[in-house]
Write a structure and sequence with these properties.
The complex is a heterodimer of chains A (298) and B (314). Chain A is mainly alpha-helical and 298 residues long. In chain A, 73% of the residues lie in helices and 0% in strands. Chain B is mainly alpha-helical and 314 residues long. The chains are: A mainly alpha (298), B mainly alpha (314). Chains A and B meet through helix 4, helix 5, helix 9, helix 11 and helix 12 of A and helix 1, helix 6, helix 7, helix 8 and helix 10 of B.
Amino acid sequence: MSGHEAMSDHESSFRRAVATLRRDPLAVAGAVVLAVLVVVGVLGPWLAPSGTNDVDVNHMLAHPTWAHPFGTDELGRDVLSRVIVAARVSLEVAVVSVGLALAVGVLIGLVSGYYRGWVDNALMRCMDVLFAFPVLLLAVAIVAVLGPGLTTAMVAIGVVYAPIFARVTRASVLSVREQVFVRAAVSIGTSDARIMRRHVLPNIAAPLIVQTSLSLAFAILSEAALSFLGLGVQPPAPSWGRMLYDGRGFVTDAWWLGVFPGAAIFVTVLAFNLVGDALRDVLDPRQLTLSEARRSTR
Amino acid sequence: MGRFVLRRLVQSAVVLLGVTLVVFLLLQLVPGDPVRIALGTRYDQATYDALRARSGLDRPLVVQYLSYVGHAATGDLGVSFRTGQPVSTIVLERLPATLSLALTAIVLALVVAFPLGIISGVRNGSAVDHAARVFSQFGVSVPDFWMGIMGILLFSGVLAWLPPSGYESLRDSPSGWASHVILPAATVGLVSASILTRFIRSSVLEVLSEDYVRTAEAKGLRPRVVVLRHVLRNALIPVVTVVAVQLASLLGGVIVVEVLFAWPGIGRLTYDSVEARDYPVLQGAVLLVAALFLLVNLLVDILYARLDPRISVR
């Protein structure tokens, strides 16, 4: 079997996977929610009924009404508008940080699994070191030294999730590199870089897709946690985590400050998890253990 | 078995050395002069020079690292930029609060997850199974600090049953400690419970499809005996690892929940040191947590190898 035949096999298996996913009501629900979130993320500032920083001292901590369906915060700002606009921040952080983790992790995993030997040993020990830190603690430490903000939060989340991509990639590369089409490519003198790009990478896509979708959920939670600690998005820009932090002192008098931003995080993460779980069941059922064991943002 | 333990010990020691390097490099990554930043408005040249020399920051990087590792090995993690107290004292003072929260949370998680996961696995497709799956999906998707806020809203705001935050030492006031620990422990325990439920369920389902279970059923053993003697014994071995990962991450300081509930543990200390830019304390807290994390994982691997001898042969 050539690398291209293997790829076309994968293409048909992806088509089968999509067909199976379309029959899973939970996966469809998750995908619909994500689609809505993307629209809200892109069109947020135009969809929001008020400006996110329009202070109204006459309506501070106002109950939800038709004028303000999610109520107002301690500065009289419309909570619904802030929840809508904050969707973009969460999605942006999730996509950029997971993209970073994917790029770094896949590169390390590819090199490690393909060359094996001392390169593999050295790279995997480095990954072991990063695995020795609880995820959020390492992210907090990185943001603490680099300074709080959106960019550093993205870098920190990317760094802490890179090792899991490296491990998933390496495990898949180890089996693919023993396939006949890879050995054939080596025997006709194809360069290592080309073999990795053209023959190995397309054949390890399934576990990476699954890991990416689940990591997006973790990244949203991590960004919310960092923002809750004041280390993510900086005020006055709205973010769901920061809104919860700012509202925590008023929550017993103004329940809406605690309920709506948190519900937005929950629904987003749930949607990513539902799609991710369905993808895993279809594409890579054996990946359960690793993902589950790291399924925590602490 | 002896060789396995030795190999894991050496591996853990190497990783711990790597951890010290990462923790050491954290301070080097601070843009600008960390001592100058930490002193802020309290800056004067004499204090600056004294703190810099005391922290060893005026020496070459390699010397600084070797000195850091050497001192860390003897329990000396430097001094706080803010208070001048030894970091090891500050960090160890916070350990009991984190330990009591972590252990309470893991006990709560196990109390929920064991029956739910086992029944869900054994009665696959039943109403309990569906409820367990909804619960575990909910638990892995909900931010723990949001659960905490909802808990404060309900149990402190509406019902006025529990204090919204704070801490009392277990030794000084067991009842005060208990009333303060319930909300934060339930908050973080819920997430652990949902992960454990999911894992126990899939482990039970996997063992139920094994040949020896079919044989046990075929020779006429009662279902209860099959489940207790054959299924659970084997299904719960891999669960040990997941319980340990959960415990290790709880010991690692549940930063956000400790901040939310003003719980004076390692997580809260980490947050306070970030706020105050007290980098030696941040380094000490991160190092202690990573070392604890490694230790728990090492102990679990050894326990796992004892429970399942095939592990030490692989």
